[in-house]
């Protein structure tokens, strides 16, 4: 067995079950592991800590999966982990065959590097670590568990680079869907592009937040900024009985899909436009156009720990602009999906926006991702989504 020995005083987070062992924590390697090999992680005094998988090409040299010295990382182990993840979604009522759900959420399900989203009869596997990409048993096990029509593999370019991964993206099992896949989410119909859409095609994490936000939108004129394929807009119109909804996104492709989704759900008072969020808000402010409901769901502003301050400034600028076009008593649903920006940081950002704008902001609901995106207390990085529902006086 190959052993990875830590530097002195580096063991605490790993006894605490954090799964990422960075190269900087490692003192020496006994043996010569190939990338993808199972290794034991030990303290500088040779005590066993955990079993993981080695990748010399990644800054995360070892990803940890089991804290028991007896546990083999064999078929039985991976199957059990997948089944445990599946059981949660079934218990949550996310097994509806026409629906969609995140079935496996990486570290939060003890499967660092593996994301599995189900869209009706298809699975999209998003690989975020080589450790998982090199495990040939995963795809057959997913077939066994879900009996899908097809399984597609996806990976983001940054991840391929960071993990030194050479992954054949696209169909890996079964048949390709012929075009976008239709899902029914809370009674609403969406067409999801599994090959070219953002993320795995749809932002499943916002599913419950769309419904929660809609509940405040009755009779309001709503702006859904960063609308992507129209999730918040359509929920606000159909469930929330908003008077009128305008969705804006910089992606033309997303706007075309949003329009089709709105038509599919007979949401007639929803309109979409492409454009840059900051430009659009500035133009509205200049022309005096106002809304009494607003959703802000921007892309990740902080890509690394070093960019948190810049990200917070961008969030402040965006939220300030949003408030400037909100009528008194307007509802602001403001989100951040930057994992590096904490709930506390986001709260403080809104505090300074309130102080500087001269408008009082009341926090009504503080929400996170849907329950099929659990948060693991031993890997706090799994908490990333913040969705604050506020009233702006
Ligand atoms: N609210 C959406 C998800 C939004 S994801 C939903 O519920 O499905 C973030 C979106 O912001 C993406 O669709 C992306 O195309 C868009 N985007 C990125 N930069 C932008 C900008 N500067 N202005 C407007 N939209 C932008």
CATH topology value of the largest domain:
Rossmann fold
Q: What do the pLDDT scores average to? A: 96
Q: Which molecules are bound in this entry?
A: S-adenosyl-L-homocysteine
- Just name the CATH architecture of the largest domain: 3-Layer(aba) Sandwich
Total of DSSP H or I helical runs spanning 4+ residues: 11
Spatially, the strands of the biggest sheet line up as: 16-15-14-17-18-20-19
Report on the structure:
Helix 6 packs parallel to helix 7. A hairpin with a 2-residue loop joins strand 12 and strand 13. The chain is α/β, with parallel strands linked by helices. Strands 16-15-14-17-18-20-19 form a 7-stranded mixed sheet, with helices on both faces. Strands 2-6-5-4-1-3 form a 6-stranded mixed sheet, with no helix packed on it. It has a 5-stranded mixed sheet with strand order 7-8-9-10-11. The protein has 3 domains: 65 residues, PUA domain (Archaeosine Trna-guanine Transglycosylase, Chain: A, domain 4, Roll); 100 residues, RNA methyltransferase domain (HRMD) like (Transcription Regulator spoIIAA); 190 residues, Rossmann fold (3-Layer(aba) Sandwich). The protein is 29% helix and 30% strand. It has 11 helices and 20 strands. S-adenosyl-L-homocysteine (SAH) binds next to helix 7. S-adenosyl-L-homocysteine binds next to helix 7.
């Amino acid at each position: 067995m190959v052993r990875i020995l830590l530097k002195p005083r580096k063991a605490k987070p790993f006894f605490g079950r954090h799964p990422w062992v960075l190269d900087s924590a490692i003192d020496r390697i006994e043996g010569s592991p190939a990338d993808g090999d199972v290794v034991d992680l030990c303290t500088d005094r040779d005590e066993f800590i955990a079993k993981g998988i080695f990748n010399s090409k990644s800054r995360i040299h070892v990803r940890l999966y089991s804290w028991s010295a007896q546990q083999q990382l064999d078929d039985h182990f991976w199957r059990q982990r997948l089944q445990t993840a599946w059981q949660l979604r079934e218990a949550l009522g996310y097994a509806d065959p026409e629906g969609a759900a995140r079935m496996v959420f990486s570290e939060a399900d003890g499967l660092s590097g593996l994301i599995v989203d189900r869209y009706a009869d298809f699975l999209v596997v998003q690989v975020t670590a080589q450790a998982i990409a090199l495990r040939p048993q995963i795809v057959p096990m997913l077939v066994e568990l879900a009996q899908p029509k097809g399984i597609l593999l996806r990976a983001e370019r940054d991840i391929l680079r960071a993990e030194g991964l050479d992954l054949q993206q696209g169909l890996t099992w079964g048949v390709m869907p012929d075009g976008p896949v239709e899902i029914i989410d809370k009674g609403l119909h969406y067409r999801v592009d599994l090959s070219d859409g953002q993320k795995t095609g749809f932002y499943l994490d916002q599913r419950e937040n769309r419904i929660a936000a809609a509940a405040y939108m009755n009779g309001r004129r709503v702006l859904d900024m960063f609308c992507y394929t129209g999730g918040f807009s359509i929920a606000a119109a159909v469930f929330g009985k908003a008077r009128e909804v305008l969705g804006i996104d910089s992606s033309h492709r997303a706007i075309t899909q949003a329009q089709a989704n709105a038509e599919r759900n007979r949401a007639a008072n929803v309109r979409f436009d492409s454009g840059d969020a900051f430009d659009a808000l500035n133009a509205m402010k200049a022309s005096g156009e106002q809304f009494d409901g607003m959703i802000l769901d921007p892309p990740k502003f902080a890509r690394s720990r070093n960019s948190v301050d810049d990200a917070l400034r961008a969030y402040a600028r965006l939220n300030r602009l949003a408030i400037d076009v909100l009528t008194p008593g307007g509802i602001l649903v403001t989100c951040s999906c930057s994992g590096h920006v904490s709930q506390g940081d986001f709260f403080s950002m809104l505090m300074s926006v309130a102080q500087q704008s001269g408008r009082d902001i009341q926090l009504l609901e503080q929400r996170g991702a849907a329950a099929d995106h659990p948060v693991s207390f031993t890997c706090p990085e799994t908490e990333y989504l913040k969705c604050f529902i506020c009233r702006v006086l």
